[in-house]
Amino acid sequence: MATRSRIGIQLADDSVLSVYCHWDGYPEYNGVKLKEHFNTRDKVAELIDGGDISALWTNAGWQNETLPESGPLYYSSRGENCPPRHDNNMTEYLTQDAEEYAYLYTTDGEWLCYDTCKWHDVTYLESVEIPAA
């Protein structure tokens, strides 16, 4: 079963540009991979420019073939058109969909994680720590 997440970048006007990610959205995996491999604004912008993602960090292709490098597996690589989504503010970003986690690369260059799982009554919309790599 997938742990879905949304990965976003905060823009200068506090709006958020983001993409959906289907697999491994929990902080212990996607959170760590974001901090390890997407640790500059340029790298995050490039990640999001690719559109929605099946897996954030993998070396397996759509036919389960081994790819020469690990990295994001975009839906666009199999012909789907899944562009980034723009939200006007953090509230819109965190409450639009039903992913379990939302990640935000802030204008301060920091990754934040939020529990966006609506059936988590106690922790819904709370900040979640991303473990060290």
SSE arrangement:
Blueprint: E1 5-10, E2 16-21, H1 27-37, H2 41-49, E3 53-60, E4 66-74, E5 85-87, H3 90-95, E6 101-105, E7 111-115, E8 127-128
Parallel strand pairs: 1-6
Antiparallel strand pairs: 1-2, 2-5, 3-4, 6-7, 7-8
From the helix content, strand content and strand pairing, which structural class follows?
alpha+beta
| SS element count, helices | 3
- The structural domain count equals 1
Uncertain spans: none
Beta-strand percentage? 25-35%
Mass-distribution shape: globular
Task: Walk me through the structure.
The protein has 133 residues and is α+β, with helices and mostly antiparallel strands. It has one domain. The protein is 20% helix and 33% strand. A six-stranded mixed sheet has the order 5-2-1-6-7-8. Strand 3 (53-60) and strand 4 (66-74) form a beta hairpin.
List keywords for this structure.
133 residues; alpha+beta; two-stranded antiparallel sheet; 8 strands; globular
